[in-house]
Structures are given as C-alpha cells and as structure tokens.
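Colleagues,

For the teaching module next term, I've prepared a clean inverse folding example: a structure given as tokens, and then the sequence designed for it. I'd like students to try predicting residues themselves before seeing the answer, so please don't circulate the second half yet.
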C-alpha cells in the first residue's frame, strides 16, 4: 500500500489551512499497529523513557526510539516527509521563513549541523486516567513545522476517552479548542508550533498546542512522528 495513493495531500493542506489539523486515512495496517505496540516493552529499541507525571506533562509514559529506527517508523517518516515539506515550504514562503529540504535526509543533515542528532519519533502509552497536557514538540533551533500522530489502538474497542485535543491561539482573541478522533491506524497531521493565517497585512503566525483528554478506560497507544531531530 502506497501512501501516495492513500493520502489526499491537497485535501490535507486545505484542512490544515482551514481548521489547523488534518486526519489521514489509515497509514498503518492493524497488524503494523499491533507490531508497534508490541515494541513498547523492547528496551533496546529506545534511547529514553519519560514518565509524564514526573515532569507534570500529564499521566502516561513515552519512549523515544533510538537509531536505527525500526523499519516501519523510518519508512513512515521518510515517505510522509516530502509531501509535508511541500506544505511547509508554502507556509515558509507566506511567513518569510527559510525553505526546508525536499527529502528527510536533507532535513536530518541540517539538524545535525545545528547540533540536533537524536531521533525524535516516539511511542506513547496511556492507561486509564492517562492524559497529555497541551504542549509543543520543539527540540532545538531547527523545527520542521508539521508532525503526525498515528493512532495505534482502536477507539471504543481498546480504550474510551482519550481524544486528540488542539488549542489555537490567535493574537487578541480567545483560544479555540478542537478535537480529533483518529481511528485505528489513522494519522493526525498538525503544526508543531504555528501556522500562517491570512491577516490584514499578509499572513500572521497562529500558535497551536496539542494534548490528549483523559483516557476513561483501556490503553491508548500512539506513534509520534516528529521530523526534526532533537538536541
Ligand atoms: O497521544 C497523542 O495523541 C499525542 C501525542 C503527542 O503529543 C505527539 O505525537 O507529539
Ligand atoms: Fe506532542
């Protein structure tokens, strides 16, 4: 199954521009989702583990993959990047920012030059009572502006609650809440920090933070695909 066939990138870009996030069709099969969930316990696959409550990040746990990334994660990160880079570069043009390389390899080289060597893709796991406080995944000076969270658990079957929450903050306006409910294998594409929105004088940056509402029952696993590397 090719991503180019499954993701309607024009539609995704429209959704990002109009609403601020975009849901994709399933990017992983149920078997691939199960395979990734099964990897959570494989200590050797990860470079670090974060117990969220210790940092007041929420309730739950996540683990950053170490290099070399599992083939499934590396494949997804590599294939999703070029179409996202085209969107990111249209945004960069509107905001007067520098363009991003067309391929992931180029982005990772630029990250290395900025001292960002460590892979940022991660697996997250929330049990009952789990949640994730609103945040932004910035890991250094070099930030690729879009990221993807892939749902590895089946909503209403494996867990209840646990919606993907986004809050948009515009200058001089009250914050706008949004909720996404990706199904098994579906991805949510969203801005890491901000996106361009048309204003009286061209475009302005609108900030976005993301998090997860409380998991009411069961276990919720997500693959976080972040394209820039971390310091
Ligand atoms: O668990 C989620 O849906 C959000 C995960 C997250 O914060 C991320 O992918 O950066
Ligand atoms: Fe995040």
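(Answer key — instructors only)
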């Amino acid at each position: 199954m090719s991503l180019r066939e499954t993701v309607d990138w024009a539609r995704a870009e429209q959704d990002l521009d109009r609403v601020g996030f975009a849901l994709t069709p399933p990017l992983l099969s149920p078997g691939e989702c199960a395979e990734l969930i099964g990897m959570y316990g494989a200590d050797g696959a990860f470079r670090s583990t974060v117990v969220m409550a210790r940092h007041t990040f929420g309730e739950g746990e996540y683990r950053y993959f170490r290099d070399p990334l599992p083939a499934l994660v590396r494949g997804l990160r590599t294939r999703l990047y070029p179409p996202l880079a085209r969107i990111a570069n249209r945004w960069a043009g509107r905001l007067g920012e520098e363009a991003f390389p067309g391929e992931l390899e180029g982005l990772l080289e630029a990250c290395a030059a900025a001292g960002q060597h460590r892979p940022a893709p991660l697996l997250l796991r929330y049990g009952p009572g789990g949640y994730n406080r609103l945040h932004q995944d910035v890991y250094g000076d070099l930030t690729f502006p879009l990221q993807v969270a892939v749902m590895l658990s089946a909503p209403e079957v494996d867990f209840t609650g646990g919606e993907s929450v986004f809050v948009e903050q515009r200058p001089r306006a009250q914050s706008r809440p949004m909720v996404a409910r990706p199904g098994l294998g579906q991805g949510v594409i969203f801005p890491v920090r901000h996106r361009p929105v048309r204003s009286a004088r061209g475009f302005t940056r609108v900030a976005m933070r993301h998090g997860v509402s409380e998991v009411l029952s069961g276990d919720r696993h997500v693959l976080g695909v972040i394209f820039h590397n971390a310091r």
